[in-house]
Amino acid sequence: MRLTHLMMASLAIGFTTSLQAADFTFKYAHSQTDDAPRSESMRYFKEALEERSDGRIAVELYFNGTLGKEEDVLQQVQMGLIQGYRGGLFAQANPAYLIYTMPFLFTTPEQAIDVMEGELGQAINEGAHANQLHIPVTGVAGGMRQLTNNVRAVNQVDDLRGLKIRTPPLAPTLLAFEALGASPQQVPYTETYMAMRTGVVDGQENPPSNIADMKFHEAQEYMSLLNWQIHPDPFFISAQWYDQLPEDLQSIVDDVAQETMTRSNEIWLASEANYLDTLGEHMSINDIADEHRQGFVDAVVPVWEHFVERGDFSQEQLEQVLTLTDQAEVLE
Which are the contacts of 12, defined by CB distance < 8 A and separation ≥ 6? Predict the structure, then answer.
């Protein structure tokens, strides 16, 4: 009996020691479910960071919004109460992140990723430090956003006129659909399905993964592959926490974060293709001809200029992106 007690005591001491072995704790939260691509990539982050730091950093993951709404979590990251977060509200980190959301600025997610991983993307990331955030890398939050509706297939700008489209309350999105002649409607995301069923709205816009997850295809007849917008996915890290790390751990955190985002992009974009196949079984899907896409671009150029004038990003930055996406002639 005494031997058993000694063994149990020894195990307890060893367990306590393992818990105390970490010099730093990285508490991370987001609002997506356990099965979301973002969650899958963050499980890799935890495993890789704990291993490469030799246990000096312990990672705690909190999904499903368990630590609060996105706005509350981001504020806690800025205060150093939580160390990491991925999700919306990227403009609060740096308004320049809105450049990624400009309508019809990119035609593929890969174009956006190239910009995010280049000098311009890094400069935008670094600008977040002024808001108490260290952002080592930015990826894409799903694939290109597409349009669904119950009235008609959208092949050119005129097809959008008068359609009541549910949109998130984001300035670039609202201004874009107004510029295209549609009527953007504010409906809570969780109420969108019923709003389409009852005719409160004609349609909505989202990446294929969201459309499938929310079963919007059950309430819609047409899906038009506008490839009209993409959302960035910055990896928010508390600057207060990061700045106090030794240099070797800072490098490890940055490296693992970058690898994590690469995995996240791959997982997310692969799943988008699968979702699109599934949606094609329930809705009529159409592509936009190249000659008609230019009409959409021309209609939203004033939206780009609005955010330049507002100071969210510069004319030079906009021109950099257009050059990188082979659209430099648009502003000529």
Answer: none
pLDDT tens for 178-228 read 999 999 999 888 799 999 999 999 999 999 988 988 899 999 999 999 999
Specify burial of residue 114 (Cβ count, 10 A radius: 0-12, 13-18, 19+). Answer: middle
pLDDT for 9-34, tens place per residue?
A: 443 434 433 445 789 999 999 988 88
Residue 202: CB atoms within 10 A of its CB come to 22
Query: Strand 236-238 and strand 133-134: pairing?
Result: antiparallel
Which structure tokens are listed for 198?
């009852």
What is the average pLDDT across 30-43? Answer: 90
Tokens representing 15 are 């367990």
Instruction: Give the mean pLDDT of the chain.
Output: 91
Bridge partner residues of 285 (DSSP): 223
Domains of the chain as residue ranges with CATH? 145-230+277-331 (3.40.190.170)
